[in-house]
Amino acid sequence: MAALAEEQTEVAVKLEPEGPPTLLPPQAGDGAGEGGGGTTNNGPNGGGGNVAAASSSAGGDGGTPKPSVAVSAVAPAGAAPVPAAAPEAGAPHDRQTLLAVLQFLRQSNLREAEEALRREARLLEEAVAGTGAPEADGAGTEAASTLLSRVTASAPGPAAPDPPGTGASGAAAVSGLATGSAAPGKVGSVAVEDQPDVSAVLSAYNQQGDPTMYEEYYSGLKHFIECSLDCHRAELSQLFYPLFVHMYLELVYNQHENEAKSFFEKFHGDQECYYQDDLRVLSSLTKKEHMKGNETMLDFRTSKFVLRISRDSYQLLKRHLQEKQNNQIWNIVQEHLYIDIFDGMPRSKQQIDAMVGSLAGEAKREANKSKVFFGLLKEPEIEVPLDDEDEEGENEEGKPKKKKPKKDSIGSKSKKQDPNAPPQNSLFFFHRIPLPELKDSDKLDKIMNMKETTKRVRLGPDCLPSICFYTFLNAYQGLTAVDVTDDSSLIAGGFADSTVRVWSVTPKKLRSVKQAADLSLIDKESDDVLERIMDEKTASELKILYGHSGPVYGASFSPDRNYLLSSSEDGTVRLWSLQTFTCLVGYKGHNYPVWDTQFSPYGYYFVSGGHDRVARLWATDHYQPLRIFAGHLADVNCTRFHPNSNYVATGSADRTVRLWDVLNGNCVRIFTGHKGPIHSLTFSPNGRFLATGATDGRVLLWDIGHGLMVGELKGHTDTVCSLRFSRDGEILASGSMDNTVRLWDAVKAFEDLETDDFTTATGHINLPENSQELLLGTYMTKSTPVVHLHFTRRNLVLAAGAYSPQ
Fold first, then answer.
1. Sign of the dihedral defined by the CA atoms of residues 453, 455, 461, 467, in that order
2. CB within 10 Å: which end of the chain, N or C, has fewer?
3. How far, in Å, CA of 191 to CA of 563, rounded?
């Protein structure tokens, strides 16, 4: 069988929500079954108007896989007939499609399936013989070829388990052995790709239900769920919102406007409070014409809403819909929902509420199982030269000299290889991601950083940092972005009047490089050449950078302080030189406003995110993006590089956080749980944890390695605009539009985490209600929203915001 697997591969074309079909690379079918990912893809396989993917199962003839075809509108002998799924023989279009399916079953020698379908549709044998209806037969042949074009033969593999519910009411699977269709010497399973819109496969089966019955269908399901046991009620209640949305959209799409309005008014108040913004948009879609080109409409129609439900709760739901023969709801479950079934105890209301709230439901468990190298890169060894300045100053006060081994320990700290770090070749110092080589100035800066580290204040509950607040007064231009250099010497502000302003927050003023004519007179070999090239005539505390044609929403200094990035409503990202204070490059890739941009911790690379729903990875010497991270369903509001520069985190208005692998552009983590658009992100210094803040006022903590939520910090009453860990990771600072800075005990928040395999597999998150215990301090401003936070190298907190008079 292994030889067959190597010989036969599958190339599948999947219809994406937007744009042309994407051709997936061939994948060997010798793995854990092509159907493994589809096990819970639709909840149960099959359903009204659906041709479901079937997985091969090993037979009794020496393990030869036996292909099976699942045809949803078919009920085996003895099964209850499904009125909605049986097409009427009188309808010509339905008849042609039915003939096509029967002909396909006959060609595949699936006699049992053919007979069952014919009995169900009450057709006579002569209808398929082709003697009395040549036109219909020709149309059937054409339809059959269309259907066959969507069928792919996959290589044999281990049997994939059938999803729960296969063969349920309204979705009966009929299997048989295909012998004539497979090429000699090759055995394959017949599978049909799962499409976002099932009507694209067999439009004849997409039958519209009675619009006057929608309220009764929904009320019946609501009554059933509310009367079920407490352990199942919380899980099944997740169905209310997606079913409500799709039933309403179906009514509007089919131009039953009065019924849609009545349905919305009757049930919209039952939905969770965090869906109110989405419902407000939905209420404006009252006619079919409104739906064309509407982004929210596009999201609901093309992305499956993910529900994570235990197997017991799912079986309960399936039995109810089977008994009631409620095909309208079942079809929506099939076509528009992804039911992620897990074995184990149902989750509680508290556990579910912690994870839901995003535009597309929860994240699939499969989405968070990829390996993530969250460890830090091994730093190059840099010898720290002896420096007597501090010692001389201390001797004047009569204190003993500092011992040098303390400094050496800082340098040796990075010599150990982190087992969770991205793989690298130690011989050639080759990283997983190509990084720029350290220049002499970078090495000097690292030495300065190490010296500063020796004077760093060790923070904790008993030793909180001081906070220095920079208030932008008279900022009538509208402060929209702030950033501070790593060494805390410069601060930049982006403004709504399209300017970028840079201030020096040290006594050293900002100077530009001299003109070319003056530079030619300088001795380039002198030791102080870097000082001589600067023009003292241009020295000032403030420099204003002009170039954007819209509000500046993002700003980021390069680690070496030579460059500044700014992103704007004009759709561009600009790179500014801090030597000449001029624009060097304008990066044009986004077609809409760019909300944020961020330099890599190692420089060279930067990321941007905007209204076009994608984040882009750039290199400063390329005018085209290196990677495009697409997957969010709404604006990308904030971006952040992982400390090892191998990953990028993005926060979106779709209420999810995604982690992207820079190497291949894949999404390796999807975090759901926020109830509003996300506006701030920060990684812990060790790279293991991520903190996120949103308009819901909550700060959520995530374990990147396990892909789990591990903490929830409640206290803010407005949008959390900025988050920052202290240099040693012991304190988390959060700044908000509620005019406060709050300090949290990060060490206590991350200790004794439940990250066992069961928790990872099922999502049974038990968040401790200890926000007040973790809150170390709250610091209020008079009337200044906190836009930005920064920890200096000695762990002093710098905060910034624009004063807003009441």
1. negative
2. C
3. 54
Q: Give the pLDDT of residue 690.
A: 95
Q: Quickly state the pLDDT bin for 108 (edges 50, 70, 90).
A: confident
**Which residue type is seen at 225?**
I
Query: How many CB atoms lie under 10 A from the CB of residue 94?
Result: 18
Residue type, 712: E
CA–CA gap between residue 112 and residue 132 (Å, rounded): 24
Give the mean pLDDT of 656-667: 94
Which amino acid is it at 285? L
Q: 182-203: per-residue pLDDT in tens?
A: 333 333 333 333 333 333 322 3
Mean pLDDT to the nearest integer, 51-60: 36
CA distance 476 to 497: 9
Question: Residue 743 in contact with residue 777, Cβ under 8 Å?
Answer: yes
DSSP helix/strand/coil, 544: strand
CA distance 288 to 248: 11
- The one-character DSSP state at 646 is S
Are 202 and 97 within 8 A, CB to CB?
Answer: yes
C-beta separation of 361 from 405 below 8 A:
no
0.90 surpassed by pTM: no
CB 661 within 8 A of CB 669: no
Longest C-alpha distance within the chain, in Å?
A: 114
Distance of CA 509 to the CA centre of its chain: 43
CA gap 93, 99 in Å, rounded: 10
Instruction: Among 77-81, 596-600, 674-678, name the one with the lowest average pLDDT.
Output: 77-81
350 contacts: CB under 8 Å, gap ≥ 6: 767
Highest mean pLDDT among 345-354, 526-535, 583-592: 583-592
Query: Cβ of 467: how many Cβ atoms within 10 Å?
Result: 18
Provide the 3-class DSSP secondary structure of residue 297: helix
pLDDT over 90 at 557, yes or no: yes
Say if CB 244 and CB 271 are below 8 A apart.
yes
Q: Give the Cα separation of 406 and 481 in Å (integer).
A: 38
What was the pLDDT predicted at 385? 61
Helices (H), 269-372: 276-283, 288-291, 295-302, 311-324, 327-336, 349-355
Average pLDDT in the 503-507 region? 91
Cross-strand pairs, 22 = 14
- Read out DSSP for 18-56? SSS-EEPPPEETTSS-GGGTTTTBTBSS--TT-EE----
CA distance 538 to 476: 26
Q: Which residue has the higher pLDDT, 442 or 480?
A: 480
Helices (H), 325-455: 327-336, 349-355, 389-396, 405-412, 440-454
The DSSP-derived string for 48-92 is: TT-EE----EE-TTTT-EE---EETBB--TTSPP-GGGS--TT-H
Contacts of 148 (CB under 8 A, 6+ apart): 104
- Average pLDDT estimate for 54-67: 36
Task: Give the closest residue to 672 by CA, choosing from 661, 662, 658.
Answer: 658
Give 681's contacts (C-beta < 8 A, 6+ positions apart): 638, 639, 640, 649, 650, 651, 657, 690, 691, 692, 693, 723
Q: Quick check: helix, strand or coil at residue 712?
A: strand
Give yes or no for a contact between 278 and 296, defined as CB atoms under 8 angstroms apart. Answer: yes
**703, 682 contact by CB (below 8 A):** no
